[in-house]
Amino acid sequence: MQALGRFSRGRKVPVSAGIGLRSPHYREILETEPDIGWLEVHSENYFGRGGQPLAFLERLRGRYPVSLHGVGLSLGSADGLRHSHLVQLKALADRLESAMVSDHLCWAAIGTRHLNDLLPLPYTEEALDVVCANIGQAQDFLGRELVVENVSSYLQFSDSRIPEWEFLAEVARRSGCGLLLDVNNIYVSAVNHGFDALRYLDSIPAAAVREIHLAGFDSNGQCLIDTHGRPVAGPVWNLYGEALSRVGPVPTLIEWDTDLPPLSVLLEEAEKAQEVLSEWIATEMPDALAA
Amino acid sequence: MLSLREMQIGFAAALFNPSASRQAPGIRADGISPAVRMGFYRTNVFENYRKALRPTYPAVEKLVGGGFFDRLAEEYIRQYPSRSGDVGRQGEQFAEFLRHHACAEQLPYLADVARLEWCIEESFNEQNAPPLPLQRLTSVPEEHYPQLRFLLAPSCRLMSSDFPVNRIWDVCQPTHEGQGNVDLNEGGVDLLIHRQGFSVAMQALRPGEFTMLVALSIGCVFSEAYDHAYRVDSTFDPAEFLQKTVQSGVLVDFTLAAEVHAP
Q1: Average pLDDT estimate for A236-247
Q2: How big is the A-B interface in CB pairs under 8 Å?
Q3: Structural domain boundaries of chain B?
């Protein structure tokens, strides 16, 4: 399925640094209008039908392109997608004319139970079929391309037969979805499971990558945990440079969810990402700058 | 090899039952036991749910203390599985859980405080509705008034409690000054929770007003609703009620019941 043709409404996410919008920062962003390329929000936080959160977001989207990043679609559920979730997501994406809609390569629900977490999948042919069918259903229903992000994981299944990077590449090839490359998640999982992060990046089809995520992790003493509660770590910045050299310049987001710092700290992190991005473009694509 | 469905059912069971972790489906050890690895996810999942519950129920937390709130949250999460991909909906049955919890013996009003906080949460995120222009109402011939069917603003919630739950909620607010005690013998209260602008306000109603709004909210026409209200309060004034509720944006629309249009 070639979904790019349908991906034209709203304002596009620019190839620049953006930040995850969290409610404690609403007012400050509205009042100070910081020089930032775009904003990303967690879709489910705006599933309410009105009130302050949506009103602020609607005002902000007049100033910044907004990307919807979901955590609840459960693209890996063996029993398919939840229709009511799709309905709410579509209503929101249409209402906001969202520049992008993304979710995760994971599962979170089975039967009537939702676990509300990004749970790992076994990388098998069966899981590949399930994920691609679910993504296809979501893209058809939403009438647009879905962008799918790799998650951090703290365990692997003995049934897994396909390396995660090949699985992700195959999902993009078969379903026609876009990819959201979370460089921090690649690093966290590479450390946790002992694989080569560069080999992961080498396998990613560059043309499918729509966005990169950067965030901070913590350690629980045995595993690295993707907490989004700290600045981006040094090795993750290095890996970001490696990712750019493979997929080219793409919109890059600073995510911060726990122990949320003042907005200025997020903006500094975004500025760092912007510098890396600008420098890469200046060095590798001088013609693009001249144009 | 387990099917994906079998794995996911087993994984969900093991998440909520640590003793089932040993049977956690097909997890590689790789230096850390599968049970410990499941524990990493269990920690994250319970943390997600606690984080979603806490900001919705600050008064409940204030009444029971942070430590006990965490214990209640953990029990609740185990007993009432989430059914939505929006973690914000997960607290919907917290009041129901508290009503049946052992702590209800000492804190019989706790479930109603939770019910009030859920009403506030829902009202905060409900659909906006423009106010009803008063002249639209005044242009309706008076003889049609009994057959008007009114619509409440989507952000309205009506709740009745055997306890002075609004006063209990008040003293739990961080901004509350003065006496921190509420006399439970003050008796119960009928409340309207309603968003004005971005702020949710609550209002204690007289029995006639409350009954009238409940009747209108379930689709009674004005005359039927008035009959109900009159039965609980013979001094209830429907004209005053209409003016007040339209002006404050509680009633936002109306239609004429079908028989009025009949030839």
Answers
A1: 97
A2: 143
A3: 4-107, 129-261
Name the B residues in 110-149 with CB < 8 Å from any A CB.
124-128
CB contact under 8 A, B125 and A88: no
The domain of A46 spans: 4-290
Q: What's the pLDDT at B51?
A: 94
Q: Report chain B residues whose CB lies below 8 A from the CB of A113.
A: 12, 81-83
Length in residues, chain A: 291
Given a cut of 80, is residue A288 above it in pLDDT?
no
- To 5 degrees, how large is the angle CA B215–CA B217–CA B222? 55
Q: How far apart are CA A135 and CA A3, in angstroms?
A: 12
Q: What is this model's ipTM?
A: 0.93
- Asked if the model's pLDDT at residue A7 lies above 50, the reply is no
Residue B36 touches chain A, beta carbons under 8 Å? yes
Please name the member of A113, A117, A124 whose beta carbon is closest to the beta carbon of B41.
A117
Dig out the tokens for B200 from the structure: 């949710």
- The pLDDT, as a whole number, for residue B21 is 58
A38, pLDDT greater than 50:
yes
What CATH number does the domain containing A97 carry?
A: 3.20.20.150
> Which residues in chain A touch residue B11, judged by CB atoms under 8 angstroms apart?
110, 119
**CATH number of this structure's domain B129-261, picked from the four choices 1.20.1050, 2.60.40, 3.90.1150, 3.90.930:** 3.90.930
CA distance B96 to chain A (A): 18
Whether residue A72 and residue B1 make contact (CB cut-off 8 A), yes or no, is no
Interface contact B4-A50, CB threshold 8 A: no
CA distances from A219 to A118, A229, B40, B47 (A): 18, 11, 11, 16
Nearest to A192 by CA among A216, A157, A156: A156
Number of structural domains (chain A) is: 1
Q: What is the pLDDT of residue A285?
A: 83
pLDDT value of residue A269 = 98
Q: Which of B3, B90, B127 sits opposite A49 (nearest CB)?
A: B127
Using the beta-carbon criterion (under 8 Å), do A222 and B32 form an inter-chain contact? yes
Longest dimension (CA), chain B: 83
Measured between CB atoms, does B220 come within 8 Å of chain A? no
Close Cβ partners of B21 (under 8 Å, ≥ 6 residues apart):
B14, B34, B35, B38, B39
Question: With contacts defined as CB-CB under 8 Å, which chain B residues touch A153?
Answer: none
Q: Which residue has the tokens 């003889």?
A: B143
pLDDT band for position A291 (cuts 50, 70, 90) = low
Contacting residues of A for B83, CB less than 8 Å apart: 112-114
- Three-class SS state of B263: coil
- What average pLDDT values come out for chain B (263 residues) when binned by 10 residues? 94 85 79 92 95 97 96 96 96 98 96 98 96 91 94 98 96 88 92 96 97 98 98 96 96 82 44
